[in-house]
Amino acid sequence: MSVNTNWLWNPEDLENTPSVRAGISIEEENDLRKEGVRVIKEIGKSINLKTNPTLATASVFFHRFYMFNTFADYPPRMMALACLFLAGKVEETPKKCRDLVQIAIDKYPMHFSGNNSMDELILLERILLQTIRFDVHVEHPTNAWTFINDSLATNLCLLWEPEVIAISMLYMSFKMERIGESPEGEDKMGEDAEWWNTYVQNLTVPMMENICHKVLDCLEVLDNIRYETSYSI
């Protein structure tokens, strides 16, 4: 598996992760990634952490970690908490280990206990740091509205630079708001315009639409989960 200094992988690498090689299906791994990011967001918002940058950084740490480790060896919820713990320090919004563990126990009593959770959290933070080679600098796509937050549940941060994701989310926002269409409905934001080349070179419409579809597919799954949770007994 190849990774460069920008922490980007090829699409083929995402189909051959340690978890996949250990027997977990790609679909199941994607669900586990979504679950980990959901835990990061829910616990983070409970202690008034903002998505940008702390929760976003924690989500990127989470995705990167599982490019080197399996979900079988490291269950996603506890690792999500470790990513949040480290991201708080990195983004200068630190939270006490005890407080994070207590909130996790309150929210997920079936998955966390007070016995050894603090010791485990500190240990997992060390393992996380070693896995990411102590490279804690994370850049995020910005100014593409709420779609950026939604993209964190996907593995796009492992495939594309943040500026590519940002432009793609901006492109999707424009399309949904029908910005760039003539009164006759003609699309002025297609290949001919290529306004995005000012910011990112060699980016094509099919590339952006592929990124957009990945986010939209994830949103559909998350909406179904929220619906089922809302109507569960």
UniProtKB/TrEMBL annotation:
Protein name: CYCLIN domain-containing protein
Record keywords, A-Z: Cyclin
Cyclin-like domain mapped to chain residues: 38-130
GO annotation, biological process: regulation of transcription by RNA polymerase II
Pfam families in the cross-refs: Cyclin_N
Top-level taxon in the UniProt lineage: Eukaryota
Organism expressing this protein natively: Meloidogyne hapla
Gene Ontology molecular-function annotations: cyclin-dependent protein serine/threonine kinase regulator activity
Segments crossing the lipid bilayer: none
Family note: Belongs to the cyclin family.
SMART domains from the UniProt entry: CYCLIN
InterPro entries given in the database record: Cyclin-like_dom, Cyclin-like_sf, Cyclin/Ssn8, Cyclin_N
